[in-house]
Design brief:
With 115 residues, the chain is mainly beta. 3% of the residues lie in helices and 45% in strands. A six-stranded mixed sheet has the order 2-10-9-4-5-6, with no helix packed on it. The chain has a four-stranded antiparallel sheet with strand order 1-3-8-7, with no helix packed on it. Strand 5 and strand 6 form a beta hairpin. The N and C termini lie far apart (38 Å).
Length: 115
């Protein structure tokens, strides 16, 4: 599996917005649901998922604030994050959903929400 490449993180004030992007290989992207994950100190958690047909799902804490989307031509997946909160601070990763033990993980992109 080719390593995904995440981008778009940064430092933002509470209530602000960021848009994350992830470039994946065609072989990874084309036949898999994709997910955005995040890791603060502790374990990694799945935040949002989008199937190959565009069906989305979110964890409760981000519903109504985050929107996941995918571009099946460019093999990219995005996460629009609005109304950010300090508890959204984490390193964000994308990968297939589910992500098996043999999956390759990218470097992630740091999101810091702080005043």
């Amino acid at each position: 599996q080719v390593q995904p490449v995440e981008s778009g993180g940064g430092l933002v004030q509470p209530g602000g917005s960021l848009r994350l992007s992830c470039a994946a290989s065609r072989s990874t992207f084309s036949s898999n649901a994709m997910g955005w994950y995040r890791q603060a100190p502790g374990k990694r958690e799945l935040v949002a998922t989008i199937t190959t047909r565009g069906v989305t799902s979110y964890i409760d804490s981000v519903k109504g604030r985050f929107t996941i989307s995918r571009d099946n031509v460019r093999n990219t997946v995005h996460l629009q994050m609005n109304s950010l909160k300090p508890e959204d601070t984490a390193v964000y990763y994308c990968n297939t959903e589910p992500a098996g033990p043999s999956n390759t993980w990218g470097q992630g992109t740091q999101v810091t929400v702080s005043s």
